[in-house]
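Sequence design from tokenized structure. All designs in this work follow the same two-part layout: the structure record, then the generated sequence. An example of the structure record is given first.
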């Protein structure tokens, strides 16, 4: 057996002597090497390949390397070592000199490429360890992504190396003249104690149930080595470590057994007085190994290093190893295996209330033989896959489908049609006319209802007509569905009939090829008209009834309303929604009722004016609009405006007032004067603040009929 302290270095190799035979030696190389075959060629192959399609990882190719490493001497080095050993032992033993084999207990071999990130290396395979006999051969397989494959193809050539291997070997050796021991002791203890009690006497019972479980585990390893004077301290330390490893190896096998805890009954029954359960389990393991010069222990040998590239090697004939003999580029796009797959889906709603019951899809591809696939769809999330081998470069296939409807034996059969890529049968292709009608921006304050009429004439069969009605109470999307048993390939005609307050009109027919119809407001503009009562509303005129009518014959649209004016309410304003800004006619008429009981008719009059005066016409009418837009309503509660006008004749002076509140605009202040040389008037405004105070503006005289109140009282 190898004597660990009988060591020397020959030709870069650590050589040990035998404990008993002076002619027997053991050579331990400093690093692993590539294994070679009988001709001296490395057992090494590198394949760089392209893939026909992008992989899920996003790669389009990669590399694949296989090789063997060994922890053994090469023949030239072996010959050099034997020659030197024969010279050492002398003539009597030279013929008997030989190299023995170490008895290996266990070992590992690790390739550093295993620790490289996925960008350069995908995966490394190797067995759990070397062979532990012969040359300690370890096979490795390395898979590389496309980027790493190109890098390693270059790095594996030329000088240097990129493959790093680390062996971890433990072999049995004899110790030098030392004594010592290795001791292991292990104690495992489990205990269980349960106490339960019940007094079972008069009054309220007292009950207790306590459980105590204890588990302890103690493992101790001790080693000690005694060496003589002058012993190599490093060797002694390695011997002690070897003893420790030997003890640990034995102890590990013996420590696998676990001490079982209590698994019995823990229950407590009713009507008892006292329960006591107790369980203990003790396991003790103890051994000692004694070492001396006859003891065999495990000794670590850890050869490691970078393997030189195979292009730096020569075979047994002395010829350089060529990269081309160990490298191949492969295109995996083999026409024989080339195929394609097609996801098949049906984009349709098979739910309750929908007309489509199911769809049967047929797919076929003419390759070396006709390949077909038939699929039945009755769920919207269903996906099927058709696959076939490619003939030539064509991936064009044909498909047809049959649509089955609910409540009828009528089907829609779509003919065979060519297609490439994923296949999705859309709802528009399923022989169903489906329209979604939405009210859009309809204002149901001006439109009572909107009726949408649709017409569709299929290629086969009678024309289809239908209607939907929208009102303020029914203003959500409505869907029209009709089975036409053919592909929809024609436009839909639709027309909207609008009903307003007491009138109806309709749009022209329109066409759409889409599935949605959005209704828009029929009104495109606004027309405003203001009616102002003039005359003596306090003493002479009782009231004025005004009828206002808007008509647009070209659009078939009309609008009408009536209002009563009097001293308390002398002003009315209408905002009329119209279809065209200048195409309609605004007409007003009415009756003036006097306090003496007489009535005067206001004839029907067409006007383009925005302000119309009705009543007893006088020489001059001054209509003043008070605007509170600038008032600071955060601090102001109320504004009282007093206006005075006499038209230049003090005898006909009129004084009127208007109250202005936040969020409101007062009606026009109207002065009716028999004769006016001027339209000047004066006004003041009193502001009543939120804190209880008030302030009045200075008087302002102006002819501007629009009075813009200031933010706060001040110089006007």
């Amino acid at each position: 057996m190898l004597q660990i302290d009988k060591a020397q270095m020959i030709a870069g190799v650590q050589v040990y002597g035998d404990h008993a035979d002076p002619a027997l030696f053991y050579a331990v190389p400093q690093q692993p090497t590539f294994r070679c075959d009988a001709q001296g060629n490395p057992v090494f192959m590198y394949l760089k390949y392209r893939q026909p399609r992008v992989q899920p990882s996003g790669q389009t190719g990669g590399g694949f390397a296989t090789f063997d490493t060994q922890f053994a001497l090469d023949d030239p080095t072996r010959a050099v070592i034997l020659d030197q050993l024969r010279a050492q032992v002398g003539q009597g033993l030279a013929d008997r000199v030989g190299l023995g084999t170490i008895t290996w207990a266990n070992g590992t071999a690790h390739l550093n490429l295993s620790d490289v990130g996925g960008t350069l290396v995908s995966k490394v395979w190797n067995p759990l360890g070397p062979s532990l006999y012969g040359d300690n051969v370890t096979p490795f397989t390395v898979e590389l992504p496309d980027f790493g494959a190109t890098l390693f193809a270059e790095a594996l050539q030329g000088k240097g190396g990129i493959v790093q291997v680390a062996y971890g070997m433990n072999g049995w050796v004899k110790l030098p003249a030392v004594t010592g021991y290795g001791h292991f002791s292990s104690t495992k203890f489990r205990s269980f104690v349960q106490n339960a009690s019940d007094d079972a006497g008069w009054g309220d019972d007292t009950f207790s149930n306590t459980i105590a479980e204890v588990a302890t585990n103690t493992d101790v390893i001790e080693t000690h080595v005694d060496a003589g004077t002058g012993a190599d301290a490093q060797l002694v330390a390695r011997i002690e470590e070897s003893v420790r490893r030997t003890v640990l190896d034995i102890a590990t096998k013996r420590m696998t057994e676990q001490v079982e805890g209590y698994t019995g009954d823990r229950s407590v029954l009713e009507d008892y007085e006292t329960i006591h359960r107790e369980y203990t389990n003790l396991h003790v393991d103890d051994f000692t190994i004694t070492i001396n010069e006859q003891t065999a222990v495990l000794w670590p040998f850890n050869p490691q290093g970078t393997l030189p590239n195979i292009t730096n090697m020569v075979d047994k004939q002395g010829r350089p190893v060529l990269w081309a003999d160990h490298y191949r580029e492969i295109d995996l796009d083999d026409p024989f295996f080339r195929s394609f797959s097609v996801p098949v889906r049906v984009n349709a709603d098979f739910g309750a209330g929908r007309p489509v019951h199911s769809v049967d899809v047929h797919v076929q591809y003419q390759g070396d033989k006709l390949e077909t696939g038939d699929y039945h769809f009755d769920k919207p999330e269903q996906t099927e896959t058709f696959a076939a081998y490619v003939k030539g470069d064509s991936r064009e296939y044909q498909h047809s489908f049959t649509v089955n409807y609910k409540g009828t034996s009528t089907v829609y059969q779509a003919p065979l049609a060519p297609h490439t890529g994923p296949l999705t049968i859309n709802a528009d292709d399923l022989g169903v006319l489906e329209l979604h009608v939405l009210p859009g921006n309809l204002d149901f304050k001006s439109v009572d209802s909107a009726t949408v009429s649709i017409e569709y004439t299929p290629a086969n069969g009678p024309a289809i007509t239908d209607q939907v009605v929208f009102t303020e109470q029914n203003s959500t999307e409505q869907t029209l569905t009709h089975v036409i048993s053919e592909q929809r390939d024609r436009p839909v005609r639709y027309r909207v009939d609008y009903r307003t307050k007491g009138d109806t009109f309709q749009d022209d027919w329109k066409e759409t090829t889409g599935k949605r119809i959005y209704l828009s407001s029929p009104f495109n503009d606004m027309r405003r008209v203001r009616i102002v009562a003039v005359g003596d509303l306090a003493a002479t005129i009782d009231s004025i009834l005004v009828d206002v009518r808007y008509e647009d014959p070209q659009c078939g649209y009309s609008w009408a309303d009536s209002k009563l004016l009097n001293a308390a309410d002398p002003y009315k304003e209408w905002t009329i929604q119209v279809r065209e800004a200048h195409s309609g006619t605004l007409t007003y008429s009415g009756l003036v009722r006097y306090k003496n009981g007489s009535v005067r008719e206001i004839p029907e009059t067409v006007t383009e004016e925005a302000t119309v005066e009705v009543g007893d016409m006088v020489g001059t009418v001054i209509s003043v609009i008070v605007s509170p837009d600038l008032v600071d309503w955060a601090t102001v509660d109320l504004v009282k405006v007093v206006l005075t006008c006499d038209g230049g004749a003090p005898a006909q002076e009129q004084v009127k007032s208007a109250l202005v509140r936040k969020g409101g605009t007062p009606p026009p202040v109207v002065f009716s004067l028999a004769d006016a040389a001027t339209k000047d008037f004066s006004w003041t405004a009193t502001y009543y603040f939120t804190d209880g105070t008030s302030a009045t503006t200075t008087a302002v005289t102006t002819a501007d009929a629009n009075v813009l109140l200031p933010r706060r009282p001040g110089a006007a």
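The first strand starts at residue 2 and ends at 10. We note this feature because it recurs in several other targets discussed in the main text.
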